[in-house]
């Protein structure tokens, strides 16, 4: 469950900037819910996803994620536990450049201290499904943009997180791959995962009708 009430946030110090990056944002997504996150470039989509990924804390308002209220007083241990249950596909992938594709995808499982054989098996199955079975020992720099993006998606889903935040996760993919990824994300919601996908891909949004959060100039102008 995600619930935001009148959340405000901005890049950098509060003084000297005429407007907030995110202003007065209120919405809720139930467990197993799917939302598109739409809006023009610069509207604040990535900023909102980074806030939900706990890379920053709200300046004001209330934010509740998986039953925990995110306030300036929230314990670091509670934040650390929560972060392990929330995955993000960053717009710029953020793969670890010195790790192989398999080790990038295995990272969330190793953080959960899962058995090494199990890690190897799960990573290999997922990467094969993603069409990257033959690239497992490559480094990110040796992959195409779309291959790196599929690696980032695999890393986000491998640990079966409660919340998946995907920032334009299909912009480097061809249509067939984009459909495959969206189908997978929709199937995960049926198993209780909450998913928010920021996109500029109108064709994909039409193909997978779902409620949408519309951002413009940091404000939510529509919820549905
Ligand atoms: N590191 C930063 N420092 C200061 N301002 C920033 C920073 N990153 C983004 N911004 C500003 O915050 C606003 C929202 O940016 P954000 O990246 O969230 O938009 P977006 O909706 O994801 O856009 P896009 O569709 O281009 O990815 C923009 O005005 C942007 O210029
Ligand atoms: Mg963005």
Structure description:
There is one protein chain. Helix 3 (101-111) runs parallel beside helix 5 (145-157). The protein contains 7 helices and 10 strands. With 224 residues, it is of the alpha/beta class. It has a domain at 1-85 and 198-224: 3-Layer(aba) Sandwich (Rossmann fold). Strand 9 (212-216) and strand 10 form a beta hairpin. The chain is 34% helix and 24% strand. The mean pLDDT is 94. Residues 11-12, 21, 39, 41-47, 91 line the site of adenosine-5'-triphosphate.
Shape: globular
Helix content: 25-40%
Task: Tell me the major beta sheet.
Answer: 6 strands, mixed
In CATH terms, what is the architecture of the domain at 1-85 and 198-224?
3-Layer(aba) Sandwich
Order of helices and strands: EEEHEEHEHHHEHEHEE
Structural class: alpha/beta
Q: Regarding CATH, which class of the domain at 1-85 and 198-224? A: Alpha Beta
- Provide the β-strand percentage band: 15-25%
Termini separation (Å)? 17 Å
